[in-house]
């Protein structure tokens, strides 16, 4: 009976292969985390400030605060 | 002022504080980038039995992990220096206010006006009106005009204190025998709270700062008549 010859397993360069794959993976993950923070937190925060001041009226705000009795310096 | 259990910076009321918040986001993004990279690599090292015990030199990776951190540091330094110089700009202040730290209250002098000076003590808890904030209110608030550059000269009469108002992005040490200068400007009317930020004795936590920003016409009326309720 002819015995089947198994394919020679990968015997060298296992760590190097692992490192090659995961170095790319590590950079992708870290850049992804940074991009997530930038586009999920930082940019929306800047936009929120821009949107707040787009239609902000200091006079209206002031009158509302004055009416609410917040200021002690104004009778 | 801070909301209960608030973790982040307070909402900005001045352009400088908006810049500082954006820079904080930028720096934190870089911190998350580096921390996630390190965490990934640590987990990588802890989940393998493969080893390499005969490394003799590693010129390429040494180059990478020298140049990359240098580039990251430059990316942090450039906006940081930009804001640093921005905070040092002094553009013809409308008003000068002297804030002098004492144990344990602040005193304010408006030298542009005649005889306008007062002490600002913490409002004891049992004197608070409903809706007022515990350990943050004062008996005499510091009234200032909004939408105006204000020079604040900060010093101390006894020990080190620090005059800080987070929403305006100001924290300046009050040092006896020294005059420190800070610029304050609010884009909006309202009340802005701060607390002494340098340990100064038993009541260090009980000498808050309250700035009341109003229109400058109303401010001039107040300065003339000194309405203190």
UniProtKB/TrEMBL annotation, chain A:
Component of the cytochrome c oxidase (complex IV, CIV), a multisubunit enzyme composed of 14 subunits. The complex is composed of a catalytic core of 3 subunits MT-CO1, MT-CO2 and MT-CO3, encoded in the mitochondrial DNA, and 11 supernumerary subunits COX4I, COX5A, COX5B, COX6A, COX6B, COX6C, COX7A, COX7B, COX7C, COX8 and NDUFA4, which are encoded in the nuclear genome. It comes from the Eukaryota. It comes from Callithrix jacchus. The keyword Transmembrane helix applies. GO terms for cellular component: mitochondrial inner membrane; respiratory chain complex IV. Pathway: Energy metabolism; oxidative phosphorylation. InterPro entries: Cytochrome_c_oxidase_VIc, Cytochrome_c_oxidase_VIc/VIIs, Cytochrome_c_oxidase_VIc_sf. SUPFAM superfamilies: Mitochondrial cytochrome c oxidase subunit VIc. It is found in: Mitochondrion inner membrane. This is Cytochrome c oxidase subunit 6C. Component of the cytochrome c oxidase, the last enzyme in the mitochondrial electron transport chain which drives oxidative phosphorylation. The respiratory chain contains 3 multisubunit complexes succinate dehydrogenase (complex II, CII), ubiquinol-cytochrome c oxidoreductase (cytochrome b-c1 complex, complex III, CIII) and cytochrome c oxidase (complex IV, CIV), that cooperate to transfer electrons derived from NADH and succinate to molecular oxygen, creating an electrochemical gradient over the inner membrane that drives transmembrane transport and the ATP synthase.
Automatic annotation (TrEMBL), chain B:
Binds a copper A center. InterPro entries: CcO_II (IPR045187), CcO_II-like_C (IPR002429), CcO_II_C (IPR034210), Copper_CuA (IPR001505), Cupredoxin (IPR008972), Cyt_c_oxidase_su2 (IPR014222), Cyt_c_oxidase_su2_TM_dom (IPR011759), Cyt_c_oxidase_su2_TM_sf (IPR036257). Gene3D superfamilies: 1.10.287.90, Cupredoxins - blue copper proteins. Residues 1-91 form the Cytochrome oxidase subunit II transmembrane region profile domain. The chain crosses the membrane at residues 27-46, 66-85. Pfam families: COX2, COX2_TM. It catalyses: 4 Fe(II)-[cytochrome c] + O2 + 8 H(+)(in) = 4 Fe(III)-[cytochrome c] + 2 H2O + 4 H(+)(out). GO terms for molecular function: copper ion binding; cytochrome-c oxidase activity; oxidoreductase activity. One of its GO terms (biological process) is ATP synthesis coupled electron transport. The keyword ATP-binding does not apply. GO terms for cellular component: mitochondrial inner membrane. The keyword Repressor does not apply. Residues 92-225 form the Cytochrome oxidase subunit II copper A binding domain. It is found in: Mitochondrion inner membrane. Its cofactor is Cu cation. It is a multi-pass membrane protein. Belongs to the cytochrome c oxidase subunit 2 family. Component of the cytochrome c oxidase, the last enzyme in the mitochondrial electron transport chain which drives oxidative phosphorylation. The respiratory chain contains 3 multisubunit complexes succinate dehydrogenase (complex II, CII), ubiquinol-cytochrome c oxidoreductase (cytochrome b-c1 complex, complex III, CIII) and cytochrome c oxidase (complex IV, CIV), that cooperate to transfer electrons derived from NADH and succinate to molecular oxygen, creating an electrochemical gradient over the inner membrane that drives transmembrane transport and the ATP synthase. This is Cytochrome c oxidase subunit 2. The lineage of its organism: Eukaryota, Metazoa, Chordata, Craniata, Vertebrata.
């Amino acid at each position: 009976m002819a015995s089947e010859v198994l394919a020679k397993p990968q015997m060298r360069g296992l760590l190097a292969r692992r490192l090659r794959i995961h170095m790319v993976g590590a950079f992708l993950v870290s850049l992804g985390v940074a991009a997530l923070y930038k586009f999920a937190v930082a940019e929306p925060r800047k936009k929120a400030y821009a949107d707040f001041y787009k239609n902000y009226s200091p006079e209206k705000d002031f009158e509302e605060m004055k009416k609410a009795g917040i200021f002690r310096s104004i009778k | 002022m801070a909301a209960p259990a608030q973790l982040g910076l307070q909402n900005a009321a001045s352009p400088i504080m908006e810049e500082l918040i954006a820079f904080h986001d930028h720096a934190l993004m870089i911190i998350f980038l580096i921390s996630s990279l390190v965490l990934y690599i640590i987990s990588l090292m802890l989940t393998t039995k493969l080893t390499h015990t005969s490394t003799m030199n590693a010129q390429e990776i040494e180059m990478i992990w020298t140049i990359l951190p240098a580039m990251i540091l430059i990316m942090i330094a450039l906006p940081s220096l930009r804001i640093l110089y921005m905070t040092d700009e002094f553009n013809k202040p409308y008003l000068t206010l002297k804030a002098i730290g004492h144990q344990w209250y602040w005193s304010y002098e408006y030298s542009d006006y005649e005889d306008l000076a007062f002490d600002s003590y913490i409002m004891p808890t049992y004197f608070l009106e409903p809706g007022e904030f515990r350990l943050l209110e004062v008996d005499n608030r510091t009234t200032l005009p909004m939408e105006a550059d204000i020079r604040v000269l900060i010093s101390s009469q006894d020990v080190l204190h620090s005059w800080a108002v987070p929403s305006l992005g100001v924290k300046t040490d009050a040092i006896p025998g020294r005059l420190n200068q800070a610029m304050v400007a609010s884009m909006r009317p309202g009340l802005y709270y701060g607390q002494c930020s340098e340990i100064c004795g038993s009541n260090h936590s009980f000498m808050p700062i309250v700035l009341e920003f109003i229109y400058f016409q109303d401010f001039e009326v107040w300065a003339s008549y000194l309405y203190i309720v």
